[in-house]
């Protein structure tokens, strides 16, 4: 699975070029201690998606859904209810 993912990323179109094409309501949840995709990139992602909502997960890394499932699920439920 890891090799398949890495090969897919290697041959994929630049993700940043694809973000502005997103036209549906979008919630970006990002852990501020993410070591896989550092938090400093969050602003680029969020500003590239029109109308994007953003939740910073304080004290979380790359998997905020596992690190703080209560806060994560509350944020997602609120987003879906709106």
Describe this structure in words.
This protein has 82 residues and is of the alpha+beta class. Helix content is 45%, strand content 12%. The chain contains 5 helices and 2 strands, in the order H-H-E-H-E-H-H. The protein has a two-stranded parallel sheet. It is globular and about 35 Å long. It starts with a helix and ends with a helix. The mean pLDDT is 89.
Summarize this, please?
This protein is of the alpha+beta class and 82 residues long. The protein is 45% helix and 12% strand.
Write the layout of secondary structure elements.
Layout: H1 2-10, H2 15-18, E1 27-31, H3 42-48, E2 53-57, H4 64-67, H5 69-81
What is the strand tally?
2
Report the principal-axis shape: globular
Span of the ends, CA to CA: 35 Å
Query: How are the strands of the largest sheet arranged?
Result: 1-2
Radius of gyration: 14 Å
DSSP strand (E) fraction? 5-15%
Task: Say what oligomer this is.
Answer: single chain
- Main beta-sheet strand count, sense and barrel state: 2 strands, parallel
Key features of this structure:
alpha+beta; two-stranded parallel sheet; 12% strand
